[in-house]
Amino acid sequence: MVKDYLFPKDFWWGSASSATQMEGAANKDGKGKNIWDHWYEIEPNRFFKKIGPSETSQFYERYKEDIALMKELGHNSFRFSISWSRLIPTGEGEVNPKAVQFYNQVMDELWNHGIEPFVNLYHFDMPFEQQEKGGWESREVVKAYVKYAETCFDLFGDRVKKWFTHNEPIVPVENQYLYGHHYPALCNFQKCVQAGFHSILASAMAIRAYHKRNLGGKIGIILNLTPSYPRSQHPADVEAAKIADAFFNRSFLDPSVKGTFPSELVDILKKEGFMPHIEDGDITLIKENTVDLLGINYYQPRRVKAKENLFNPNAPFMPERYFDYHDMPGKKMNPYRGWEIYEKGIYDILMNVKENYGNIECFISENGMGVENETRFLNEEGMIEDDYRIEFYEEHLKWVHQAIQDGSNVKGFHVWTFIDNWSWLNAYKNRYGLVSVDLDKDCKRTVKKSGYWFKKLAVTGLI
Ligand code: GAL
Questions:
Q1: What are the pocket residues of ligand 1 if the criterion is a CB atom closer than 6 Å to any ligand atom?
Q2: Of 55, 57, 183, 450, which residue is 20 to 30 A from 409 by alpha carbon distance?
Q3: What's any one GO cellular component for it (predicted)?
């Protein structure tokens, strides 16, 4: 018997994107430089095929066409980010009127098509001048961010009723200060912890500022939650998974939703001598200003085992001093991106949020499959037949459906992403869109098979 999976009537169907990844026009209309513009200038070889952030998918010029297509493909909501350095070119001071005009037009265009804008304030794109001051490592930058957030609430709060303080705040922090994927590519755990703490503090301050304004909307955060599964039930494996979870999930999830930090993590930071600098009042501020709404990005699980070897005491400190990654035999892989596909992970996250985080209102804010060289799947009509993507989404959605049956407060599902976009160092290597972008033909948009599949899903609520 074929089972139908029917989703609630007012489920949020849509997609997510970010300014740097889709706007383009990086040097246009007074936008200031962010770290990506700068990094590309000095090290273009870091980027796949040396494609930088300056043009990306041209949303800046083509937002009308794109929004019409979103409507056509069934969107009732769309998440994008405001580019801090477009709105306030150096990160603090004067507001750029051209940017205000652009974001106003995008928001109005969305509403005119019956699509609710979900607006994120920070998606990996530190203004260059603020990075020169230390980026998230610096308390001055926290202040500048809060001013920027307030500016956004004042300018757009009449039309935006769902705000997010950050997208995946752990990602810029770990990649800028530990793992080398984002500028300035340092390897310094102390700075990493400080930057992480400041991101959380900045989020809480922005939430406070938003709530004070009584604008009648909600403010949340978007986190990439990667459930940690131990290799076995051996106590050492279980402990390793618990620590990985504290480092990579609970570090941001606990303060954002509960206003507290996981004691397992604090104990390690104390023991290893990496506690951040905290000022009077910070802990109370974080405690008192938690999110209304949680966005969950899910791509892959984290499989963990107890450490096999002693670590090199002279190497820079890494969280991986406490666990090893486990390469599970027989796991299902997306070979293009090198990521495991584990659909039930999405259910496990939702149940964890239900049971341990007060079943806070949440939604899947990103889920998606990156695939290289998709033109090999072009059919005679010139459409990419991405059945693998449709299957990927359907298998995840079945688990979201199960979570709803089991009481999860999950309100929607946003795919990553609407049109193929620029994925940081990978540039246009892996494509994620429901709509393809032809870089050789002035970014011509063509709906993929998954785009039509999505439309049917959004319209009928049924897979
Ligand atoms: C996420 C991130 C996005 C996008 C996506 C696909 O982690 O939020 O910016 O790049 O991964 O790689």
A1: 18, 21, 167-168, 224, 297, 366, 370, 416, 423, 432
A2: 450
A3: cytosol
